[in-house]
Design a protein that fits this description.
- The structure holds 2 protein chains of 2 kinds.
- Chain A is of the alpha/beta class.
- Helix content of chain A is 25%, strand content 20%.
- Chain A has 4 domains: 97 residues, Ubiquitin-like (UB roll) (Roll), CATH 3.10.20; 278 residues, Rossmann fold (3-Layer(aba) Sandwich); 148 residues, Dimethylsulfoxide Reductase, domain 2 (3-Layer(aba) Sandwich), CATH 3.40.228; 101 residues, Barwin-like endoglucanases (Beta Barrel).
- Chain B is built from 8 helices and 4 strands.
- Chain B has a 4-stranded mixed β-sheet with strand order 2-1-3-4, covered by helices on one side.
- In chain B, strand 3 and strand 4 form a beta hairpin.
- Classes of the chains: A alpha/beta, B alpha+beta.
- Chains A and B meet through strand 8 of A and helix 3 and helix 4 of B.
């Protein structure tokens, strides 16, 4: 029996309570049903014991004394009184002090109605204050960032926000200033609280001191309706509640899901809700022809598409996008495209991801496994920019549990400081560096970092306990290099697991359900489609199809007649936007199915309005393969429809029947045809105890799913009892909140070596060249993508792209002082502000992708495996 | 010049080298910055944050806690009049009001010529010379209104330059920094002493249980 498994016995209010060593008294008491009042204590933060609200009587050598329950760990035989007269008097006294300077402006405070200070004053506090002195005054409120307001008068100095910023987010941009009566939270002058995670501080603030700009004065808590859902702004799959007032979303709050987001959300996810009510929403179907834009009904629009489809060759039809859709939409569209039209040219990725074979056919890790691995290898983009909450999880594992990280990248990332070893490779040479790490010789000009240490690190651990996070760091370079590098790691380190670094909403679910060329639902390759699938589907594509880039290239040759864009804004989002624009103008019929008007809509001959997030039921899949539900809170906007319904209707107009009337029908079929999802019945998915979502594939042995921890209204004010809403409406047959055990079916993807499935290494791949810089284009959280731009407050956070070069390259270009540089490549030329970045190799220029602005994308060349640009000082 | 000069920066690195954790050098570096500029400028706090690997907000947070660190400009001489019990009984409050009159500023303010900042202080442990005050943390007392005026005049006339350096300079004698003790050695020492303490407690417990069984 290890230490952590030992149980201790203590007595709380005369009742015997069991606990484990190291547990804080406040948590142990809570488990036993005794709620000790608290403000500064938060289960996800380190204790500080500053607010003194949790004073209870603990028996010591000198009898019972008052001690803060959040700051003492339990001991065997401990005797505790939480409701004695002395404890009550202490708690009452603390509240009186906390209220001495609190302005009591509850009627105009956003927190009023869900405020731990209000609630606990009512429960534990005095009816009246004896203070007659003037309360302290501050200017109120002040904007400490574009998203967060600070009201210093309301602050009770609990230290929650500053602990979050320093310990969890790792950016102490706010801190206490002063001492005693003048203590207050502050930012440094001219350095606002510009953190990707700032919204969390407002969520955990136990008073109304921190409030968020988008929610300010929008609603009163008691008027809010809420539903539980999963965030799809990136692919981490954070659990959250959607809260609305009068059919408008007013805020998202993170739910404490142990497996995924542990109560945090990033600001892009939290404040992205404004795009749902954006003025850019498409209200009704319309045709965009020679006579301009003509609004039309669903039937005319669908009829027009169906007619063209019927006359088109299967090969000339293609589908791009769908990574933001629910699993049910994805499956329906895959069945429609592959099973009815018969084309395999279906791709949810926009040439910014990885070969689906790498993602679908590797053994997958969960986030928990990644944080508990003996060695975590990062071969992906900067996680803080792409999968922010995964970054938080890995960062905290590195800081608190000593997780060893080996980073293999082209430039420094937010996790470089936490990595045991961090190596840089010259663009296009990830595979060479991985070879080097695994023991081969490598040209010293192609990398930097301590290769010996990396080798020692890899050989010091059991390969079976390694997790590789694999994604796409460089949008400009070929994807083959990172794919081969990841495959080599997974092939060589027997038993190593893979965690997807693909960041688009439900892109991992789309891959699982076959929305990529060469696959059918269930991570099954097209040629090995099962009989159960064939029984349900009318036909299967005769040959493997094209990926997005190949589809666009085929369009240039005039080979694509109909292109469906499922929420894919190619002009903004596809790296090589020039290729996208040229290709789109060559396709006779482009059908855009989207929620928002964007830069690609003008190329669509038919535009169909889709329902947005929170306007529909469904499920989504995250980077782990965790299937969780999407809640519906709003009535669909105007004439919009869920994507699955559009596919079903369209099939009907073609005289075909997809066989779906309800979401349940779709899920039942998924379960039947996809070996990956077998056992995951709709009632299992919707069970109260499966609130954290369920990772597919289910293991053949019994799977135990533990209920999520009880929602703590003082840790996360604002979330009350949350109703489940999703595809599963038939959950009555399931056990209630208790732990649930169920059995899946044996599932393992049949494959030999991943590397054998990939194309051969590109032959010519030069290293550094004197005046030809290798281009690295990286993603960042706030880009000019339509989702950020259509959310009012997020759009203000987008900053111009910057370029980075090593100090030596900086000198070589002849820069001093100003970094304004002209970059030329692929026949285009752009001007960009450069800064020095010592982490980069010489001869590399790293540029942030700027989405809709499209400037950077002009540099993308499609042919070369490593894009090269020439640089000159302006 | 608000950031460290070359010479100050090399002193900053000497200070940093003394601590196993860089953050521990925050306060000494704040004093160093005050020695250069008289108070903590924003630029110097930013530079200290870079040097110790934290954020400017945390440096400001730490600095604002301490009375001896000033985040706003102060005069060349910071005059702190003690108003704690011993001085109070000997006329500290009256001395402070006189100081306000003499300098023409309220407590907490700085004279227009940038020479004097007036503060009231808690006990400065100079009770045997009450009522007492500090000028840049150098003690003076007991003082009368007249001797206070003389003191101020002498300071203004530069007669006390040798005794009282400008605000920020804690000591004109530069201490030679001792050789830094490697972190491993500190850890080893702690472990050894913990082990000894453990043995002692175990022995004590064994003795007690023996006693108990008898």
């Amino acid at each position: 029996m290890t230490d952590s498994e030992k149980t201790l016995k203590l007595t709380v209010n005369g009742k015997e309570v069991e606990s484990a060593p190291g547990e804080m008294l406040i948590a142990a008491a809570e488990k036993a049903g005794v709620l000790i009042p608290r403000f500064c204590y938060h289960p996800r933060l380190e204790p500080v014991g500053v607010c003194r609200m949790c004073l209870v009587e603990v028996k010591g050598p000198r009898g019972f004394t008052l001690q803060p329950a959040c700051y003492i760990s339990v001991a065997d035989g401990m005797e505790v009184l939480t409701d004695s007269d002395k404890a009550k008097k202490a708690q009452d006294g603390v509240l009186e002090f906390l209220l001495a300077n609190h302005p009591l402006d509850c009627p105009v405070c956003d927190k009023g109605g869900e405020c731990p200070l209000q609630d606990q004053t009512l429960t534990f506090g005095p009816g009246e204050s004896r203070f007659i002195e003037e309360k302290r005054h501050f200017e109120k409120p002040i904007a400490i960032s574009k998203l967060v307001y600070l009201d210093r008068e309301r602050c009770i100095q609990c230290d929650r926000c500053t602990r979050f910023a320093a310990d969890i987010a790792g950016e102490a941009l706010i801190d206490f200033e002063g001492r005693g009566g003048s203590l207050h939270i502050t930012t440094f002058p001219d350095k606002p609280f510009a953190s990707y995670f700032s919204g969390n501080t407002a969520q955990i603030c136990p008073v109304g001191a921190l409030t968020t700009t988008p929610y300010r004065f929008k609603a009163r808590p008691w008027d809010l309706e809420q539903v539980e859902s999963t965030c799809v702004s990136c692919a981490v799959g954070c659990q959250m509640v959607v809260q609305s007032s009068e059919n408008e979303i007013v805020r998202y709050l993170g739910i404490d899901s142990e497996a995924v987001n542990q109560s945090w959300l990033c600001d892009k996810g939290r404040f992205g809700f404004e795009s749902v009510s954006s003025a850019e929403r498409i209200a009704s179907p319309y045709l965009n022809g020679a006579s301009g834009v003509v609004e039309t009904g669903w039937s005319q629009a669908l009829d027009a598409i169906a007619k063209t489809l019927k006359s088109a060759e299967a090969d000339s039809v293609a589908v791009i996008g769908g990574s933001h859709m629910a699993n049910e939409d994805v499956y329906t569209w895959v069945k429609f495209a592959k099973g009815i039209i018969g084309t395999d040219s279906v791709d949810a990725q926009l040439d910014d991801g990885l070969d689906p074979k790498v993602v679908a056919l590797s053994d997958r890790a969960t986030i928990q496994e990644a944080t508990q691995a003996k060695l975590l290898i990062l071969l992906t983009g900067d996680l803080r920019e792409e999968l922010p909450i995964l970054f938080l999880r890995i960062r905290s594992a590195a800081k608190k549990m000593g997780l060893k990280i080996l980073e293999i990248s082209q430039s420094e990332s937010s996790l470089t400081g936490d990595a045991a070893v961090s190596l840089r490779y010259f663009p296009g040479h990830a595979e060479d560096l991985v070879d080097g790490v695994l023991g081969a010789e490598i040209d010293p000009g192609l990398y930097s970092g301590d290769l010996q240490a990396a080798r020692a690190l890899v050989s010091s651990v059991d390969p079976g306990s390694v997790v590789v996070v694999g994604g796409r760091e460089n949008l400009a370079g070929s994807s083959l290099d990172p794919e081969r590098a990841i495959a080599k790691l997974l092939d060589t380190l027997a038993g190593a697991k893979f965690l997807s670094g693909l960041r688009r909403g439900n892109v991992n679910g789309a891959i699982d359900l076959g929305m990529v060329p060469g696959f059918v639902p269930g991570r099954v390759r097209l040629e090995s489609a099962s009989d159960s699938l064939k029984a349900r589907w009318k036909s299967l594509p005769s040959k493997a199809g094209r990926n997005s880039k190949e589809i666009l290239e085929a369009a240039l040759r005039g080979e694509i007649k109909v292109l469906f864009l499922l929420g894919a804004d190619l002009v903004s989002d596809f790296g090589d936007s020039a290729l996208a624009e040229r290709a789109l103008s060559k396709i006779p019929m482009v059908v855009g199915i989207d929620t928002l008007t964007n830069r690609t809509t003008q190329y669509c001959s038919v535009v169909l309005p889709a329902t947005a997030f929170a306007e529909r039921h469904g499920s989504t899949t995250n980077i782990e393969g965790r299937v969780s539900i999407l809640g519906k809170k709003l009535v669909g906007f105007a004439l919009s429809r869920p994507e699955w319904m559009i596919a079903v209707e369209l099939a009907a107009y073609m005289g075909e029947d997809l066989g779906f009337e309800h979401l349940q029908d779709i899920w039942e079929e998924i379960q039947e045809v996809s070996p990956l999802h077998r056992g995951l019945s709709i009632s299992v998915l919707g069970a109260p105890s499966a609130k954290e979502g369920i990772v597919v594939p289910l293991s053949a042995s019994k799977v135990q799913i533990t209920s999520r921890r009880v929602l703590d209204p003082i840790a996360t004010p604002g979330i009350t009892s949350v109703g489940v809403s999703g595809p599963p409406s038939s959950s009555a047959a399931l056990p209630g909140e208790a732990d649930m055990v169920f059995t899946g079916e044996a599932y393992s993807p049949a494959r030999s070596k991943l590397l054998d499935l990939l194309a051969d290494k590109d032959g010519a791949n030069p290293g550094p060249e004197a005046d030809n810089f290798a281009l690295v284009v990286s993603k960042r959280l706030y880009d000019h993508g339509v989702e950020v731009l259509s959310a009012k407050h997020l759009s203000e956070l987008v900053s111009p792209s910057k370029g980075r070069v090593s100090p030596r390259s900086w000198e070589q270009i002849g820069l001093n002082g100003s970094g304004l540089t002209r970059l030329q490549g692929n026949g285009a030329s752009i001007e960009l502000e450069l800064i020095q970045d010592p982490s980069l190799l010489d001869g590399v220029v790293k540029v942030e992708f700027d989405g809709a602005l499209g400037e950077v994308s002009k540099l993308f060349g499609v042919e070369s495996s490593t894009n090269r640009v020439k640089m000159e000082k302006v | 010049m608000s950031r460290f000069t070359k010479e100050m920066e090399s002193r900053a690195h000497q200070i940093l080298a003394l601590y196993p954790e860089r953050r521990s050098a925050t306060i000494p570096l704040c004093h160093l910055a005050q020695e250069q500029n008289g108070y903590l400028t924003e630029e110097s706090m930013i530079q200290i944050a870079e040097l110790v690997g934290t954020t400017p907000a945390e440096v400001l947070g730490a600095a604002s806690f301490y009375d001896m660190l000033h985040t706003e400009p102060v005069g060349k001489y910071v005059v702190g009049v003690c108003t704690n019990i011993a001085c109070l009984l000997q006329g500290g409050e009256e001395l402070l009001s006189h100081a306000e009159e003499k300098l023409g500023i309220p407590t907490g303010a700085t004279t227009d010529d940038g020479m004097f900042t007036l503060e009231d202080m808690e006990c400065i442990a100079h009770c045997d010379h009450a009522p007492a005050l500090q000028v840049n943390y150098r003690f003076f007392g007991p003082l009368t209104n007249d001797s206070f005026d003389t003191l101020v005049d002498d300071l203004s006339a530069g007669k006390l330059e040798s005794e009282v350096p400008p605000h920020g300079t804690l000591s004109r004698v530069q201490r030679k920094h001792p050789i830094a003790v490697p972190l491993e050695e500190i850890v080893r020492h702690r472990r050894d002493s913990d082990a000894k303490e453990g043995e002692r407690l175990a022995a004590k417990a064994a003795a007690e249980s023996k006693e108990g069984s008898n």
